Amino acid sequence: MPDLPPDLPRLRTLRTFFAMLLAELDEAIARAEQRQREEQYGREHRPPPPEWLLEHGLSRDAPPVQVHAGGCWNAGKRSKGVSRDDALRALAGGVRACSACRPDTELGYLDG
Q1: pTM of the model
Q2: Using an 8 Å Cβ cutoff, are 98 and 75 in contact?
Q3: Residue of 53, 55, 71, 110 with fewest CB within 10 Å of its CB?
Q4: Collapsing DSSP states into helix, strand and coil, what is residue 90?
Q5: HSE of 54 in the Cβ direction (CA atoms, 13 Å)?
Q6: Among the listed residues 74, 57, 67, 63, the one whose alpha carbon sits nearest the alpha carbon of residue 88
Q7: Cα 62–chain centre separation
């Protein structure tokens, strides 16, 4: 243990300093534990990924350009989850099926 000062005022100052430091440390630990609980809750309650994706064009009003299976690596950032019926309707309406994930095959969609 380091040498402590012999006089009472400096000892009390050190005591106050370390009490404040300990309080800050306790708060940091509490924040870290809260973050950890929130991350765990997020992992446990994350909604399942969509089974089908509809990729939209560049502008907000652009029509869809591709249909993807839910986990497709080739789906663009402008994709949103859709139901099986919506994916089939899009394919029937002329929207192209992704050539990487082949949602038309998975959906059992045959042209015409």
Answers
A1: 0.61
A2: yes
A3: 110
A4: helix
A5: 18
A6: 67
A7: 26
* Angstrom distance (rounded) from CA 67 to CA 90: 7
Concatenating the DSSP letter of every residue in 15-79 gives HHHHHHHHHHHHHHHHHHHHHHHHHHHHHHTPPPPPSEEEEE-SSTTPPEEEEEETT-TT--TTE
- Per residue in 50-88, pLDDT (tens digit) is 999 999 988 877 889 999 998 899 988 889 999 999 999
* In the block, residue with structure tokens 């404040």: 20
Which residue reads 């994709």 in tokens?
A: 79
Kindly report the number of other CB atoms within 10 A of residue 66's CB atom: 24
Does 4 have pLDDT greater than 70? yes
- For residues 95 and 71, the answer to whether their CB atoms sit within 8 Å is no
